[in-house]
């Protein structure tokens, strides 16, 4: 049993629809992030190693410390995962009483005017920053630290791309459902004949998504 | 106070932020988006010569460095580790085990079941620190038993809501880790400072329940099938309480005695929680996967606010927001203690609709410098660094707890309502939490009047 409190609110129902393009985009994000989630276990074991080294052998190494926060920095990937699970904190006092249609319009506007500019601008700046670190062969401030600082720095632009993909997926889903209406049936052969049209056609979820 | 034209931007930023969060769009993205948006607004008003913020596209190039500072942070590594520890302990079934054995032990005392819930709340508190999770777990686990035993609804619900919110105060609490990071004070000091306020609250709850039981015995009845307790029952409680208590004491003890850093202790605590789950035979791959994914998810929504608040704060600072807040608070002319009370009132009100995460990340960094400059008589005994801020952080922590319990929109109330059986009305919960709010206010006043409650323990530990 999972105790995620959000599951217990009937107002926050999940959309039980299947839109091919949305599922594809979401699966890119979840495939990557559900694997990086395991890195926290690695952080745990590395801390254990470090503690053993330091207190057992009095041999604390700077690079072990750095390795721990390098691994921890993967939390940035989680931000996109939390979009796919709709876990980012909302102030839902008013939100709960809005109609489904109004909620979707808010999502669309929010993604276009709040999330997307933020991901674009920071991505734009950070790519140059990572490149600079790569060209300059930036090393740790500690002489016994880890080399290749650009690797951990590159997690930032990559996570922004993931956030962009996850929010794009939400954007398409909400727009499709706004146009299509809330009553999704399984009869999708009627509204589109082209392959691209089918990508955007909702149907009822058959398989439980992970 | 001199009113700069840039201050209009600061006010507009706050107003936009508040207006947008009430649309229900995720707070993290509202913060990030409003920050970026106002960088553009500031650029335009600069061009019109209305303001001199110096905001432009290049200034936004400072942002990735600020976000990287969150990633490059040795202390915050403790956050996902403590979250993992809490979620794992929740799965270990430790709480259910304790519930069963302690219920027997307190079975012969009026209100014993409520005391059991409070004690489990305290132990859960030490492990999780995620209010929603503790309230929901306590509610699912103990509410059916309490109602079956014919407990009066308000007292049962009040106990659960109040015990569940202890989590954000009692160390190791992830809120205190974040507060330490934001106010630039030692997390260890905050952990130690929280020990006495947390204990006082726990004791106040238990004493209240006992007194309530004496005056209203029919509202907190004994179980129909209670048996006299023997040595075996005491032993069983000991056996069930020892493993989690040992884990928590080991984590806190190694931090307090200076053996391990907070980060190291959090990693070991996470490992310990896994070993406990294995020992309780609840461990399997599905559980591990669930905890791992939930850890990422929970960390992600906390760090989402971190990222958003960083962007918001940078642009706010460029507009002179820090100066504005400082001038504004100082111009109230309240004197140091009056000002602290005013800040706590603001935080209490904000706690109605904002979680502790947003408050710790948006409000605290703004208030920190103001509080640091105040002439307060908080005794650091010469060994505690920044005693004013340590004391202030704990006051905020207790205030937030109270705020989460306070109707009409306390967080704990809503989480609890979510797991209540259909027969229970919101007004039952409201009635139940009132006495506990009064107890919290008593604890808050005690901490306010006697700052030594906070600073004494760290001072004793650090004393040569």
Number of strands of chain B: 0
Alpha-carbon Rg of chain A, integer: 22 Å
Biggest interface goes to:
A-B, 64 and 75 residues
Number of strands of chain A: 2
Indicate the mean pLDDT of chain B.
85
What does this structure look like?
- The complex is a heterodimer of chains A (210) and B (464).
- With 210 residues, chain A is mainly α.
- Chain A has helices spanning 20-36, 39-57, 62-72, 75-84, 92-95, 100-135, 149-153, 155-180, 195-199, and strands at residues 17-18, 203-204.
- Chain A has a two-stranded antiparallel ribbon with strand order 1-2.
- In chain A, helix 1 (20-36) packs antiparallel against helix 8 and helix 6 (100-135) runs antiparallel to helix 8.
- The two termini of chain A are 16 Å apart.
- Mean pLDDT of chain A is 82; it is low at 1-13.
- With 464 residues, chain B is mainly α.
- Chain B has 20 helices and no strands.
- Chain B starts with 5 loop residues before the first helix and ends with a helix.
- The mean pLDDT of chain B is 85.
- At the A-B interface, helix 1, helix 2, helix 3, helix 4 and helix 5 of A face helix 2, helix 3, helix 4, helix 7 and helix 12 of B.
Condensed summary:
The complex is a heterodimer of chains A (210) and B (464). Chain A is an all-alpha fold.
Question: Which features would summarize this protein structure in a list?
Answer:
heterodimer; A: 210 residues; mainly alpha; two-stranded antiparallel sheet; 9 helices; disordered N terminus; B: 464 residues; 74% helix; globular
């Amino acid at each position: 049993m999972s105790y995620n409190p959000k599951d217990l609110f009937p107002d926050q129902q999940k959309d039980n629809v299947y839109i091919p393009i949305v599922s594809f985009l979401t699966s890119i994000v979840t495939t990557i992030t559900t694997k990086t989630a395991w890195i926290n276990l690695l952080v745990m074991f590395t801390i254990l190693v470090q503690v053993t080294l330091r207190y057992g052998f009095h041999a604390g190494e700077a690079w072990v410390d750095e390795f721990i926060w390098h691994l921890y920095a993967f939390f940035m990937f989680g931000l996109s995962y939390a979009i796919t699970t709709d876990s980012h904190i909302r102030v839902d006092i008013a939100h709960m009483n809005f109609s489904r249609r109004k909620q979707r319009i808010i999502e669309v506007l929010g993604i276009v005017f709040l999330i997307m500019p933020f991901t674009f601008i920071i991505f734009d700046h950070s790519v140059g920053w990572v490149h600079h670190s790569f060209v300059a062969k930036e090393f740790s401030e500690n002489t016994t630290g880890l080399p290749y600082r650009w690797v951990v720095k590159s997690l930032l632009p990559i996570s922004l791309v993931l956030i962009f993909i996850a929010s794009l997926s939400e954007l398409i889903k909400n727009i499709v459902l706004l146009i299509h209406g809330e009553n999704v049936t399984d009869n999708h052969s009627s509204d589109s004949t082209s392959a691209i049209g089918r990508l955007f056609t909702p149907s009822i979820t058959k398989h439980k998504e992970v | 106070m001199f009113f700069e034209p840039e201050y209009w931007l600061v006010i507009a930023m706050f107003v936009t932020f508040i207006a947008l969060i009430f649309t229900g769009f995720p707070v993290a993205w509202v913060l990030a988006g409003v920050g970026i948006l106002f960088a553009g607004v500031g650029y335009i008003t600069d061009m019109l010569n209305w303001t001199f913020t110096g905001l432009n596209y290049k200034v936004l190039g400072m942002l990735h460095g600020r976000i990287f500072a969150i990633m490059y942070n040795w202390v915050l590594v403790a956050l996902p580790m403590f979250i993992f520890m809490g979620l794992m302990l929740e799965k270990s079934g430790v709480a259910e085990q304790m519930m069963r054995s302690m219920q027997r032990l307190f079975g012969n005392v009026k209100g014993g079941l409520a005391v059991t819930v409070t004690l489990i709340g305290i132990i859960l508190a030490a492990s999780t620190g995620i209010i929603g999770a503790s309230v929901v777990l306590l509610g699912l686990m103990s509410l059916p038993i309490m109602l079956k035993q014919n407990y009066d609804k308000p007292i049962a619900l009040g106990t659960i809501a109040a015990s569940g919110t202890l989590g954000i105060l009692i160390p190791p609490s992830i809120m205190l880790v974040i507060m330490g990071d934001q106010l630039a004070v030692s997390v260890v000091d905050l952990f130690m400072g929280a020990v006495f306020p947390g204990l006082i609250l726990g004791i106040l709850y238990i004493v209240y329940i006992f007194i309530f039981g004496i005056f209203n015995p029919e509202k907190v009845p004994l179980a129909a099938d209670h048996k006299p307790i023997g040595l075996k029952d005491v032993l069983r409680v000991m056996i069930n309480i020892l493993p989690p208590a040992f884990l928590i004491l080991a984590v806190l003890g190694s931090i307090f005695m200076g053996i391990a850093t907070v980060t190291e202790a959090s990693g070991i605590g996470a490992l310990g929680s896994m070993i406990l789950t294995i020992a309780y035979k609840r461990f399997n791959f599905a559980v591990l996967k669930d905890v791992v994914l939930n850890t990422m998810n929970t960390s992600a929504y906390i760090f989402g606010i971190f990222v958003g608040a960083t962007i918001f704060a940078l642009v706010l600072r460029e507009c002179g927001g820090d100066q504005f807040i400082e001038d504004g608070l100082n111009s109230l002319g309240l004197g140091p203690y009056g000002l602290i009370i005013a800040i706590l009132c603001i935080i209490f009100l904000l706690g109605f609709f904002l979680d502790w995460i947003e408050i710790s990340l948006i409000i605290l960094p703004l208030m920190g410098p103001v509080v640091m400059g105040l002439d307060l008589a908080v005794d650091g005994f010469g060994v505690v660094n920044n005693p004013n801020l340590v004391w202030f952080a704990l006051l905020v922590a207790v205030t937030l707890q109270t705020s989460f319990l306070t109707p009409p929109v306390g967080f704990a109330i809503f989480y609890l309502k979510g797991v209540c059986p259909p027969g229970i009305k919101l007004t039952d919960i409201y009635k139940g939490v009132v006495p506990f709010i009064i107890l919290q206010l008593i604890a808050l006043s005690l901490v306010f009047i006697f700052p030594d409650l906070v600073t004494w323990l760290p001072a004793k530990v650090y004393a040569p």
